[in-house]
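Attaching the record inline, Q. Sequence:
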Amino acid sequence: MRLFASLLLVVVCGCADYQFTVNERVVYTPAPLFADYEIPDPALRGCVKAHIQEAQVTAADQLDTLNCSHAGIEDLSGLQVFASLTRLKLSSNAIEELNALADMTALLELYLDDNKLRSVAELKDLLELRLLDLEGNAGLRCADLGSFRSRSALELVAPKHCR
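Structure, as predicted:
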């Protein structure tokens, strides 16, 4: 009996993505992947969907890392549903505004290098940030960086014209 129980446990754990039936009755159905989000930018939507599938995310708060570099992203609208993100990499896109990130207070690392940013004022309340990479944003207003420079726990990588 122990052998059967052990074998059943291995099968169930190894096949967590499959629905199980016994005598035509469903005894286990895996949780569906998280899909309760609307992201207008097709490049960002595709990146988020791929990360959800890869990590088998079933709730928004399970997605803690997102790497959407070199994806052609222009608009971050809708990303705010993933407020539990701690590491967000959006390097080398075409992002101009950051309103969707304003309330993402769990962020520890934020990579926005090589985008089209002019302002980062929306990020001033992200007090948990430990790394903020803004290099390669030639149009960024350097005055916006004042509040970030005073944070001793933050590693700020500023654009060349702001150093």
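DSSP finds three helices and seven strands in the chain. Residues 1-30 form one domain.

More tomorrow.
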